[in-house]
Amino acid sequence: MTDVEVSHIPKTSTAPRCVTRSGPVVLPRLVRQRAMAVGIGDLAERVAAGERLDAGDARRLFEVDDVAVLGALANQVREARFGDLTFFNRNLHVNATNVCEASCIFCSFARLKTGDQGAYTMALDEALGRIRAQRDRLVTEVHIVNGLNPDLPWAWYLDLIAAIRAERPDLHIKAFTAVEIHYFAEKFGKSYVEVLTELRAAGVGSLPGGGAEIFHPRARRKLCHDKVDADGWLEVHRVAHRLGMRTNCTMLFGSIETMDERVDHLLRLRTLQDETGGFQTFIPLKFHNENNRLRRLPEPTGNDCLRTLAVSRLVLDNIDHIKAYWIMLGIKLAQASLWFGVDDLDGTVKEEKIYHMAGASTPQELTRADLVGLIRAAGRIPVERDTLYHVVAEA
Ligand code: SF4
Fold first, then answer.
1. Is 99 in the pocket of ligand 1 (CB under 6 A)?
2. Contact at 8 Å (CB) between 4 and 368?
3. Cβ-contact 318, 69 below 8 angstroms
4. How far is the CA of 104 from the centre of ligand 1 (A)?
5. What is the count of structural domains for the chain?
6. What spacing in Å lies between the alpha carbon of 346 and ligand 1's midpoint?
7. Is the CB of 145 under 6 A from ligand 1?
8. What confidence tens digit (pLDDT) does each residue in 60-106 have?
9. Helix/strand/coil (H, E, C) string of 58-70?
10. In a domain, 353, yes or no
11. How far is the CA of 354 from the centre of ligand 1 (A)?
């Protein structure tokens, strides 16, 4: 697929941020009636009144049979904030190494040691080549996430970021999950502040939201016992926010977690957001079951995906954006989710590896025209944004 090119790079840093409208949440009569019929009339009224939902409320939402009414409620909240606007960006992914000391049982991407079959670590030039290949394309972001590679020195990471910065000063570098930041801190004997400050000085602009998985200790012990725990993950983001960096947050759903553990996860994120306000976007990540140790588990149904997105919108009242990551969700479900509380579809995502190795059957990339077309076909208005939600263009 080829991208549609335009003739200049907009100065996105001075463009206006995507405005949240903060209008009233209007409950159409049919939504109100349907919510009452399925036993959540009280919750619908509280959502309309702008009241916060608690853990028990969230649990009730996850148990409602009628996913359409959840979607309708979440949609009212989404439209009160953004109307029909739906955000996307032009980005590329660089996964520079899949060698990883950790042993997360849902992971299909990692290889334990250098030299293992399928293991790779890019030389700096190779990683940089991915950026150079996009020289003539108006991508605005590079998203970098890696395994926890014991063979790489600290300078490798700083050099990688500095080289990208030198090659493409206009590109926003969103790099390294909280899991990686914690690993760097332990391995190189630095504090989170030191790691983040050095990375920022090299050119990192924000952190992606990966590695959160499920915070609850029961599920986390089973899913990923040997990487940073929930408190550590949250602390990395707290420190990043205090340093003025924006970050995203995620939840891996649909594997072994209980509904209570999903609720616990959402509320921990909401609590940190109350404290710092630094999260931009919440991205529920659908579990995929190929080429990992959970291959006997079924993947979450479309119904469960839409429910989780809708409940996230209703519970996370202090996080602006709810993103449907089309790579994992599938393009059609991502389109449908734009009526279930979602306002963001991620980006063009050149060359995604992590979820394709787990069986994602979506394309490796979409063009800007593809994204604009599928948002329009869903009845919404596409808006190209940069990483920090400055408007690049209303398409
Ligand atoms: S999910 Fe991340 S930390 Fe866990 S094994 Fe895979 S690459 Fe390593």
1. no
2. yes
3. no
4. 6
5. 1
6. 21
7. no
8. 999 999 999 999 999 999 999 999 999 999 999 999 999 999 999 99
9. HHHHHHCCCHHHH
10. yes
11. 9
